[in-house]
Design brief:
The protein has 481 residues and is of the alpha+beta class. It has a single domain, classed as Amidase signature (AS) domain (Amidase signature (AS) enzymes, Alpha-Beta Complex), CATH 3.90.1300.10. Helices cover 35% and strands 12% of the residues. The chain has an eight-stranded mixed beta sheet with strand order 4-6-5-12-13-9-7-8. A three-stranded mixed beta sheet has the order 1-3-2. Helix 2 runs antiparallel to helix 3. It is globular and about 60 Å long. 53% of the residues are buried.
Length: 481
């Protein structure tokens, strides 16, 4: 049995302090993490394309030499970091979990990776994900499946599933990911860690082929503490002239404080299952309501509320946007030899449906999205945050592709069971998954999703930090090995 290591047990904030005060060396940190990865990753399959140990230790020695000269690259100096396999990291394959891209070596870093490297991280490999990032279940034909950190018989979620499991099992001090349809929020919720989908434009994504329309996805941070989450977001965020819709407003981790006072008078709209519209498994709502009760015990006002917008219209809007953005990505692979036989059916479904879309179809979806954003702005004048479950089901069997039914209700698409995540995405609002509790009969975590005001990342993180503070030692529970 692998026992906890004092170094890998540190949260990233305390690890950074220990490195900079030279209580531990960067070489010792790298050795500790590599030892844990080699012991546990064969079981969890969270990190893929791991770099050579000696090459990583050589980079750690350089970091130690710099500290000996009084030089620090930043908060992540000497920290090992594995990049979600959607993110380009120079010298590593960017496979998107597809056999068609297994040899697609990145010639340069994307914006987020370059910023984390500038802050001192050492890229050790990539984290596993579903093929092409589609579906909240981390499995692919190239690397296989990543099981849940708490129960290896069930799903880790996705698409940032490898990141969440690596974080929960202490294979990384912090993690990064991306979020299109809950891909930072859902795996965080299912692995008892924090995952933040930042405001649209907060963390520049790319540069990619399109910098104007392709805005539903965003990269962002995942961490075991809100403080670590805020620190990593500060590093990742900021304007980049190559990405004209990136935000110029500065985000500072110092603006995030864990005062319990942030809960006093907090106005929370609790959407639940949208009055029965969202098919939801037993116990999910009760666990989320127990988390809300912790907030209410410290002065928050929880108000059951409806969404107040035509949910079916929104779903059709979502299908339109998703097909319009996903179709070309899949289409770019279709010219490769034997591509259709090597692309998973869910991706082909998105691509095939995108071929019949007209500009009018897309414009209609765009107008609906614009109306919904204005509606959410008005709703967030009445409330400080909007809450709903981060997932509609508990982690399901690892061998399943996706839930076919929730109770008596048939799921008509491979992602209908993730519908609760689309509202923050369509509105471009910040949304965080906070640990809510566990299934009453299984060791399965669940997350509560909090959606904040436009560009209100700092305020949302303050609420999460206050919640974390009132949860005490329960928040630091670790999965068994």
């Amino acid at each position: 049995m692998t026992t906890p290591d004092p170094i890998t047990s540190l949260d990233a904030e305390h690890l950074s302090q220990a490195i900079h005060t030279q209580q531990v060396s960067c070489v010792e940190v790298m050795q500790a993490y590599l030892q844990r990865i080699h012991a546990l990753n064969p079981r969890f399959n969270a990190i893929v394309n791991l770099a050579d140990d000696e090459a990583l230790l050589a980079q750690a020695r350089v970091c130690d030499d710099e500290l000996a000269r009084g030089q620090s690259r930043g908060w992540m100096h000497g920290m090992p970091q594995a990049i979600k396999d959607t993110g380009a990291a120079q010298g590593f394959p960017t496979t998107f979990g597809s056999p068609l891209l297994k040899n697609a070596i990145a010639p340069r870093d994307n914006v987020m990776v370059s910023r984390m490297k500038a802050a001192g991280c050492i890229v050790i490999g990539k984290t596993n994900m579903p093929e092409l990032g589609l579906g909240s279940h981390t499995f692919n034909e190239l690397f296989g499946a990543t099981p849940n950190a708490w129960d290896t018989q069930v799903s880790a979620g996705g698409s940032s599933g490898g990141a969440a499991v690596a974080l929960a099992q202490r294979l990384l001090p912090v993690a990064d990911g991306s979020d299109f349809m809950g891909s930072l929020r859902n795996p965080a919720g299912w692995n008892h860690v924090f995952g933040l989908r930042p405001s649209q434009g907060r963390v520049p994504l790319g540069p990619n082929a399109d910098v104007w329309t392709d805005q539903l996805g965003t990269e962002g941070p995942m961490a075991r503490t809100v403080r670590d989450l805020a620190q990593l977001l500060e590093i990742q965020s900021g304007y980049d002239p190559r990405l004209p819709l990136s935000l110029s407003s500065h985000f500072s981790a110092s603006d995030v404080t864990p005062h319990v006072e942030h809960l006093k008078g907090l106005r929370v709209a609790w959407l639940g299952d949208l009055n029965g519209y969202l098919a939801t498994e037993d116990h999910v709502l009760a666990v989320c309501e127990s988390a809300l009760q912790r907030m209410a015990d410290h002065g928050a006002h929880i108000t059951p509320s409806g969404l107040g917008f035509d949910t079916e219209r929104l779903w059709q809007c979502w299908l339109g946007w998703r097909r319009a953005l996903t179709g070309p990505r899949v289409g770019a692979l279709m010219a490769l030899p034997n591509a259709r036989a090597q692309i998973k059916p869910e991706a082909l479904w998105e691509y095939d449906h995108s071929q019949s879309m007209s500009y009018t179809d897309f414009a209609t979806a765009s107008h609906t999205r614009s109306s919904f954003y204005q509606h959410m702005v008005q709703m967030l004048e009445q409330f400080d945050v909007i809450a709903l479950p981060v997932a509609q089901v508990w982690p399901f069997a690892l061998k399943e592709r996706w839930p076919q039914r929730i109770g008596e209700r048939h799921m008509d698409t491979y992602h209908r069971w993730m519908e609760a995540t689309i509202y923050a995405t369509l509105a471009g609002l910040p949304a965080i998954s906070i640990p809510a509790g566990f299934h009453p009969h299984h060791p399965w975590p669940m997350g509560l999703q909090l959606i904040g005001k436009p560009q209100g990342d700092a305020q949302l993180l303050c609420v999460a930090a206050a919640y974390e503070a009132v949860c005490g030692e329960w928040m630091g529970l670790r999965p068994a090995i």
